[in-house]
Design goal:
With about 300 residues, the chain is of the alpha/beta class. Among the domains are: about 25-115, Leucine Dehydrogenase, chain A, domain 1 (Rossmann fold); about 140-260, NAD(P)-binding Rossmann-like Domain (Rossmann fold). About 40% of the residues lie in helices and about 15% in strands. It is built from ten helices and twelve strands. Helix 2 (about 45-60) crosses helix 10 (about 260-280). The longest helix has 21 residues, at about 260-280. The chain binds NADPH dihydro-nicotinamide-adenine-dinucleotide phosphate (NDP). NADPH dihydro-nicotinamide-adenine-dinucleotide phosphate (NDP) binds near residues 162 and 188. NADPH dihydro-nicotinamide-adenine-dinucleotide phosphate (NDP) binds next to helix 10.
């Protein structure tokens, strides 16, 4: 059997072209008016540094001006108020994890929810939980974007998510429920994880545990989306044992090259949508639609066996 490859690099480059075009329309060719994305980083976390760097690169690639601020959290807290009030700053992202989780929480809570383009604030998490999404965590949006771009049906499907974090597992669950999936969320207290994952028609792995999902844990018709980013001696791997699982499922996103490249594009899409609303007085203040229409990747037929 040959699994269809849900290629995030392909999707990200489609999204990049679309966003670049939209930013050009917004700025009318004047780079001085480009919307700005503030990226705040504190502490020495490698994961946060990598996320900040990938956002910075992605922002430049679509004509958005990144403003990278790295400092101790106290200084960042003071900076945040200025960023909230600055009309040129269209979006603010705090690259997680921060060295001190409690201070990280304070910093995130200080973001103006109207500029929270990575859906990190409790206000935006609340809107999402109510089924009225405003800004949504970008990785969760990337999961939906990749499923929709590859025409994976969601309504009526049984989806199983491994992981219940505020950044990935929970928001993915809310977005899938909103699209009509029947959703089961698993975690470390789940009894018999394999029994749950085998029933999944859509399986989203977001555990941060390298190779957790093995071939005997999946259904042959399953579509697998792997959000894991795990550094092991051999390099970066996902939460799914790709080499052994890919031959026995219908579709799978790889790591690297799956959700990873799509995530920064989701931050930027939310930022561009917000800047477009601000530039158009007739629609400003309207409920934010953060799940735009995906380019169809139907023509893309790559597969793995
Ligand atoms: P967290 O550590 O916050 O959450 C992990 C979740 O997985 C927890 O709910 C945990 O359960 C569950 N879990 C862990 N191990 C097991 C297990 N053996 N069996 C069942 N459940 C398990 O991680 P994040 O949600 O922040 O990230 C998850 C993964 O996604 C990581 O690899 C991270 O690097 C990656 N990531 C990728 C992004 C991207 O852009 N592609 C962005 C953000 C994260 P419990 O709650 O019971 O502890």
């Amino acid at each position: 059997m040959t699994a269809r490859l849900l290629d995030g690099r392909d999707l990200a480059s489609h999204l990049r072209r679309e966003l670049l075009h939209r930013v050009e329309r917004l700025t009318n060719g004047d780079p001085d008016t480009a919307p700005r994305l503030a990226i705040l980083r504190s502490g020495l976390s490698d994961a946060a540094a990598l996320y900040a760097a990938s956002l910075e690169r992605a922002a430049r690639s679509v004509g958005v001006e990144p403003l990278l601020l790295a400092d101790e959290t106290d200084a960042l807290l003071r900076l945040m108020d200025g960023l909230n009030e600055d009309p040129r700053i269209a979006g603010i992202v705090v690259a997680q994890p921060l060295g001190d989780p409690e201070r990280g929480r304070q910093l995130v809570e200080r973001i103006d929810p109207g500029k929270d383009v990575d859906g990190a604030t409790p206000t935006n998490a609340g809107w999402l939980a109510r089924g009225e999404p405003a800004f949504v965590p970008a990785t969760a949006l990337a999961v939906i974007a990749i499923l929709e771009a590859y025409d994976v049906p969601i309504a009526g499907r049984r989806a199983v998510i491994v992981g219940r974090s505020a950044v990935v597992g929970r928001p993915v669950a809310s977005l899938l429920v909103a699209r009509g999936a029947t959703v089961i969320v698993c975690h470390r207290a789940t009894r018999n994880l394999a029994r749950e994952t085998r029933r999944a028609e859509i399986l989203v792995a977001a555990a941060g545990s390298p190779g957790l999902i093995r071939p005997e844990m999946v259904n042959r018709s399953a579509v697998i989306v792997d959000c894991g980013i795990n550094a092991v001696p051999a390099g970066i791997v996902g939460d799914v044992q790709f080499a052994t699982v890919a031959p026995v499922v219908s579709a799978i996103s790889p790591v690297p090259g799956g959700i990873g490249p799509v995530t920064p594009m989701m931050v930027l899409r939310q930022l561009v949508e917000s800047a477009e609303r601000a530039a158009s007085p007739r629609t400003s203040g309207a409920i934010i639609s953060s799940t735009g229409t995906e380019p169809s990747m139907n023509a893309s037929r790559s597969s793995v066996s």
